[in-house]
Amino acid sequence: MPYLIYQKRKLVKLKEKFFQQNGGLILLQKLSTSEKSSRFMQIFTEEELKKATRDFDESSIVGKGGFGTVFKGFLEDNRTVAIKKSKIVDDNQKEQFINEVIVLSQINHRNVVRLLGCCLETKVPLLVYEFVNNGTLFDLIHTERTVNGATWKTRVRIAAEAAGALSYLHSEASIPIIHRDVKTANILLDNTYTAKVSDFGASILIPLDQTALSTFVQGTFGYLDPEYVQTGQLTEKSDVYSFGAVLIELLTGEKPYSFGKPGEKKNLANHFLSSLKEDRLVDVLQVGILNEENEKEIKKVAFLAAKCLRLKGEERPSMKEVAIELQKHHLINTDPNQKENEYQLVHEAPSNIYESGDSNSHQGLGSIGDQVLAAMNDGR
């Protein structure tokens, strides 16, 4: 019996150690300063998540990558969740983890994946999200899916939803947020092909008195803003460039960079822009999406993508302008009886998906943003 008590105390101390190492005390302090954030966030125990995933059984794995593993889990209250488990934990990854929790705790938008909570008492911190069950926009474009899922009507709606989410992050969140890794693989899709922008590990909160930040370059090759790469100055327009790369991926069905292709065709943005300039847009569009009814609309979206891909950030449109333009094209493709509801859905302030009632901005988030930025700068 004494041995069992000793082992139990040892386990408790180990969990407390992991909790502190994973930034648990900082997170609890910061989340507690925002009443809404603390309501949204749940701190899960290791036992709860083990039970949800059958002790993280391989059969529960729904995704793997350089970042780690994602498990599908079933909570006791019958919610289906996605549990993100990092591969290893170094100081940089801990910063990203804390950053993602803080960023997502203040976001309330139907087209941003919901962070339900986290677990900090394990060696590797775990994030618990709503389960989005239909893959990513990358999957939709580049793998065999249903014909309906790949129609132009569906693509432009997904683009409008993702643009609306990014516009919200830039201009409507209580502190402006730059995603910093916008790409088709980070736009999840549910079973109705509703877009959910995800993966905020690299995101940065921008103090209200600033429009740009000097930071080390982070993002994905093919989507990276060349001005950001050259200057190290991150602005909202860096997300706009990346979204332009998403748009041309939707239009062409091609990946943003292909090492196996010759010359200019390696870089999709360069190839697309030169084709558009030479009036050869039809040559680069994905087979099957162009018809007489949508030809003018596709051309307009192509020129919108070209604006997003301008080399100088100041010459690019804002995400709000992009979202409004894409919403126009989405409404063209919508049943007339649904247009009024669709318009209201995008242009009204997002409803609180966690609770009803007060919709004021989150409180105390200035200090959160400051600490995240300070931690990132100190670590670099």
UniProtKB/TrEMBL annotation:
Topology in the lipid bilayer: Single-pass type I membrane protein
Annotated ranges, domain Protein kinase: 56-332
Keywords (A to Z) from UniProt: ATP-binding, Kinase, Membrane, Nucleotide-binding, Receptor, Serine/threonine-protein kinase, Signal, Transferase, Transmembrane, Transmembrane helix
List of residues binding ATP: K85
Record localization: Membrane
Keyword Membrane assigned: yes
A single GO cellular-component term on record: plasma membrane
One Pfam family it belongs to: Pkinase
Signal peptide residues on this chain, from the entry's feature table: none
Reactions catalysed, as given in the entry: L-threonyl-[protein] + ATP = O-phospho-L-threonyl-[protein] + ADP + H(+); L-seryl-[protein] + ATP = O-phospho-L-seryl-[protein] + ADP + H(+)
InterPro entries: Kinase-like_dom_sf, Prot_kinase_dom, Protein_kinase_ATP_BS, Ser/Thr_kinase_AS, WAK-like
UniProt GO BP: cell surface receptor signaling pathway
Main location (coarse class): membrane
PROSITE patterns linked to this entry: PROTEIN_KINASE_ATP (PS00107), PROTEIN_KINASE_DOM (PS50011), PROTEIN_KINASE_ST (PS00108)
A single GO molecular function term of this UniProt record: protein serine/threonine kinase activity
Domain of life per record: Eukaryota
Family to which the UniProt record says this protein belongs: Belongs to the protein kinase superfamily.
Protein name, per record: Wall-associated receptor kinase 5
